[in-house]
Amino acid sequence: MKAKTGFLLSLMMLLEYFIWGAWYVTMGTYMGENLKASGVEIGAAYSALAIATIISPFFVGMVADRYFAAQRIMGVLHLVGAALLFLATTIESSSTFYWVILFYSLLYMPTIALSNSVAFHQMTDPGKQFPWIRVFGTVGWIVAGVLIGQLGIEKTSSTFYMAAGASGLLGLVSFILPNTPPKANAGDASASKALGTEAFVLFKNKPYLIFFIAAILVCIPLSFYYGFANPFLNELKVENAATKMTLGQFSEAIFILAIPFLFNRIGVKNMLLMGMTAWILRYVCFAYGNTGDNMWMLYAGIALHGVCYDFFFVTGYMYTEKKAGEKIKNAAQGLFTFATYGVGMVIGTWFSGIIVDKYKIAEGQHNWLGIWFVPAYIAVGVLIYFALFFKEKKQLNQATA
What CATH number did the domain enclosing 30 receive? Predict the structure, then answer.
């Protein structure tokens, strides 16, 4: 891969995830402060991305891959997305804001798969080259959080202006990215292929079915963090909360390096159990953390993101690939994403919004102790279910499906 190509792909990834990190993390705080949104309304706004996750595979698999060069359609989606992010700053109604965010999410989520397609198409050895390109996405998310915190804009519409500017820039950059033409064999695309129904055969395997159900359920506590961690920290008057939350991305980058070494050494079950235990510890830390003597608990809850995410979801993707084998691995990964970041997150965002409203004390005040124990108890339930029923060999051989 040429140096120029590597630079362009790295810039693409940095901007792709900078955009997401710029508006997504602090959206709940923005809605509460400026739109006086309820917990249910904030949860609904976060569900927009989950709904888009459900729909985007159909768009990418049945339209983008068949008829358009990936970099060009990505450019158009980001340019239109920039306009919608700007439009979001002019909205004063939570219900209208939801529809703008939903339409934007429907444009943004396909660009995740498209950016991966552009990157993979240029690589001679994706296994070695892709991680070095994809890490710039994590850098982009971190840079967005640091800028928002340092500029003190996380309660303002400036976060959306920042995301809109980056989206417009990536839209233009996309047109000079290396060409990624439509897939020659995409003519047999169908709704079932886009959804990954070929991978339904995995449900005949009891351990995988138990894992799959647990993965959907664990997205409920995940939704509490994504939707309400930033409003929680701001309500506690934590300074530069968005910057401090990037500690979670640093943690994610560190712990992901440990997964290849641990996957076959301690076994998939133990890794998944460690991930679930981290969810419980995170919410206990949030429940009892404060800006005084227990400030360390808030930092710990954020830093646990690496274990929470990597040891469950990244390990889950690896487990899915090994169970599926070469023939249906793409369908299996698509199905896993559809079920977790789609179905699981839709349920979780809806439920978390209801819980946050239930524990509202006054305008801008909540009983966070009560709120955080709800996802903690759910994580305990999922952990017990998984520990009792999941039985898989410690050494997992590659499937031949």
Answer: 1.20.1250.20
Q: Are residues 118 and 228 in the same domain?
A: no
Q: Are 375 and 221 in contact (CB under 8 A)?
A: yes
Least confident stretch, 154-163, 174-183, 352-361: 174-183
Total domains in the chain come to 2
Quote the DSSP letter at residue 178: P
Same domain membership, residue 173 and residue 209: no
For residue 401, pLDDT beyond 50: no
Q: Single out the residue of 375, 356, 386 nearest to residue 301, CA to CA.
A: 375
89: containing domain: 1-184
Answer yes or no: is pLDDT of 27 > 70: yes
SS3 397: coil
**Do residues 289 and 301 lie in contact, with contact meaning Cβ atoms separated by under 8 Å?**
yes
Q: Which of 8, 25, 14, 69 is nearest to 228 (CA)?
A: 25
Shared domain check, 300 and 198: yes
Q: What are phi and psi of 234, to 5 degrees?
A: -70, -35
Q: Which of 319, 296, 305 minimizes the C-alpha distance to 138?
A: 305
Tell me: do 209 and 351 sit in the same domain.
Answer: yes
Query: Do both 201 and 173 map to the same domain?
Result: no
Same domain, 137 and 178: yes
| Displacement of CA 140 from its chain's centroid (Å) | 14
Token pair, residue 97, equals 């804001």
Contact 214, 93 (CB under 8 A): no
Place of tokens 């000079």: 176
Per residue in 75-87, pLDDT (tens digit) is 999 999 999 999 9
Beta strand ranges found along 331-400 (DSSP E): 360-362, 365-366
Domain end position, chosen among 184, 210, 234: 184
Q: Which of 167, 184, 201 is the last residue of a domain?
A: 184
Which one, of 356, 366, 398, 386, lies nearest residue 44 by Cα? 356
Q: What does the alpha-carbon distance between residue 127 and residue 125 come to, in Å, rounded to a whole number?
A: 6
* Closest to 312 in 3D by CA, of 332, 288, 341: 341
User: Cα–Cα–Cα angle for 8, 12, 16, nearest 5°?
Assistant: 175
Predicted pLDDT at 299 = 95
